[in-house]
């Protein structure tokens, strides 16, 4: 458990990646043989190649690509047909593609072929041409299912880097919006793109992120969900330190406040760094709703936050240690319902909490056609049947239901787990020491949360420590009155509102 | 370092759960009764334990009694509570005790102060627990409480005492107030007076001129809460009827009263009475001028409003200003005479006041010994020169001004 308090050890042991630094020779035969051997031609079914004689210079040429990840029509229309039919003096004047790169060694060849490019070798030339004809398959843009909103855009990120960047650029029309990229993974190289507005972002945070990306030392990082675990500061912490969202509009609003967005292929979501408690507490819809409505949902959510962490623990603490605190009628009602229950009260609460967690977990994993079963089984466990079997008392059903229901109001996946785990810690504390233990556990929990930093930004800032900010913490201001960007990030430009006449 | 933290964390679990107790392992006491026995130093304690299963929907226990009343002998409340465990199955808790009932006999003997001391030591008895003096023995009183509407006794006590206190016919008699007044060694403490024994009062009595047991009643529960038992220095000396208790409420700065519906003599047709709602928005103003060698002057001003509820005599008080003036005077005179009568009684018979007026003189002494030497109970109050003036701020007549004209109706 001491890992919780400790930063993850920095990976320093840089193993030397195997380099395949063979230069491309001028002999086409040699090049062809070498590349066939590299990609196990023949065994590797979708690795294709085509020989042809170009019409413009009458030289032999070979084209290599993965047929599964390129656009076949484009290869035909833009490469093969012009080579066979067109006249011209140079290759770049013959092929009709938008991107043509010259590469010199096989290392690059491998990389380019893997990322969906076609490689063209020419007899007597010691360079190869890489032509972008990639066409990876991905899901079309769907609705944001996990962070749904009634009022607000419905688009969600999808598993394609280009589409995702396009979704962000569509929202942020700023020439300073930079899409920088780094490669991670030693064996399967994946591209990590991080987006920021260059005249807002705090360079320290940006450099910190780059450093952590550079330090990743592993064979492959497939998507942002895995990347999150590679770049986070405290892997054993109960609190998340990186925000994960599938909403491009949310990503855009973070960008405009000076945050950094991380995107990758194969993830229908982005990461946001740095992060504060408020990023997890807020839903994007709070801002789309009018001032009063948005703050009303915030109030509800805050209440839900309190209930879901505390209600079961408070119930255990008060009934086991402080029965004098209960109003007599409630006390007698609970006592009467517990007369025939065989278990200690804390055990009763744990049964129900665990049952709820089971239903929740099963509900996520169960195949869709079996979905309704969960409802029936769940209703049986959590409902009247358990009470009638004298396993639990009816009040526990209400407590567990409130505690479970309110946990759904905390929409963010990461903080939701925090809250659910916290609940069990609090129940244990209240079960051993009553309200005294609960207060102590809460204090420790809260102190730990307040001590956290995400990329150097304190977890509860800008509220504590205080910074100039839009005032968007527990509640938010009217949008017209938001003057500053979050000062806790130390952005290059703190003032959000240009118009100085109104305030 | 790691090991140290680990060990200290494990140490926490050594203490774990030591005062944890499951709800169903406790029985909840609602009322404590204390009676005298023949032997000095031994008292009879009665505990009324509520049955949680009665009055819930959780099934079972519906044919059980709503509470169990047990009596045993002992020297104080807490040890008696343990003795009771020889015939009560669960651990007793006094946390939810609503009333402590003492018999008039015990109260008058003066032993009550010793017994109630336990309440100030234990955390189990709340300071807000009410002290009730019963005319009969406390055991008898508790055994015979049979509320008709409330299944559970704690609810009965709660409603009964709250409502009766609101109307001012019984005082707020918390254990806290008892200690405050008794330890202050000045003033009189008023406890709630109640009984199950009825003994109708001969002669005339208006709506609140009764003590418990005297009120003509038919139907309903036998238990009557009315009037107060006067305690001087922890010993009961007398009872006050409902009306005097109400006057004490009017004159006492610390007691609250919500509703005082009462009747006043009709000045024009004395055979009738005028019913009115007495409204007092501000507490009585008490001014004390302490004179060391001659009688202390106490001036009390009570500002109040009257809303006339019924004029059975049908005299037009509302629109005839001369009549109205008469009514005004009659009400003030009536209140003043009632108050003066009570004050005179307290000065001459009790030698102290039930109005907590000593609060207003304390700031005129340099320190506590000086105040104690001046002696409120013996020297200041009995000889004080007290004037009470009632100040009628507003006289209202309800929403209909005219009463039925009898001669027109019966022509």
From TrEMBL, chain A:
Pfam families: GerA (PF03323). Residues 1-10 have a biased composition (Basic residues). Signal peptide: none annotated. Keywords: Membrane, Transmembrane, Transmembrane helix. It is found in: Cell membrane; Membrane. Residues 11-24 have a biased composition (Polar residues). The keyword Hydrolase does not apply. InterPro entries: Spore_Ger (IPR004995), UPF0353/GerABKA_families (IPR050768). The chain crosses the membrane at residues 258-281, 302-321, 391-411, 423-448. It is a multi-pass membrane protein. One of its GO terms (cellular component) is plasma membrane. Residues 1-27 are annotated as: Disordered. One of its GO terms (biological process) is spore germination. The keyword Membrane applies. Belongs to the GerABKA family. This is Spore germination protein. The lineage of its organism: Bacteria, Bacillati, Bacillota, Bacilli, Bacillales.
From TrEMBL, chain B:
This is Ger(X)C family spore germination protein. PROSITE patterns: PROKAR_LIPOPROTEIN. It comes from Aquibacillus koreensis. Keywords: Germination, Lipoprotein, Membrane, Palmitate, Signal. The keyword Signal applies. It is found in: Membrane. GO terms for cellular component: membrane. Belongs to the GerABKC lipoprotein family. The keyword Transport does not apply. Residues 19-192 form the Spore germination protein N-terminal domain. Signal peptide: none annotated. GO terms for biological process: spore germination. Residues 226-393 form the Spore germination GerAC-like C-terminal domain. It comes from the Bacteria.
